[in-house]
């Protein structure tokens, strides 16, 4: 089996299952037992509960370790500005003006 079941945080799975159960009850209650509307409300209620539980800093120990671990601040290093030469480079093209070629006029 590709999933190591010993590594699964079963308490977190149970908490999320309870959230889905509560969201399903609230969704069905608010939709007056219309299946499609109840499914949409259930998904919205579950998303709201999940975002609140996962990202609100309430310091409850049931959060997954990937979220509760403090991330180190990211430092951005800007590249150094290129050094400007003292004399500008001359173009490699020998033509330096943009005048149209002389030719017969129509």
Structural class given helices, strands, pairing? Answer: mainly alpha
Largest sheet: none
Structural Rg: 32 Å
Give the number of helices.
3
Overview of this protein structure:
- By secondary structure, this protein is mainly α.
- The protein has a domain at 25-69.
- It has helices spanning 10-30, 35-55, 65-68.
- α1 (10-30) packs across α2 (35-55).
- The chain is elongated, with a radius of gyration of 32 Å.
- 2% of the residues are buried.
- The model has no long low-confidence stretch (mean pLDDT 77).
Topology summary:
Blueprint: H1 10-30, H2 35-55, H3 65-68
Helix pairs in contact: 1-2
Keywords:
106 residues, mainly alpha, 3 helices, 0% strand
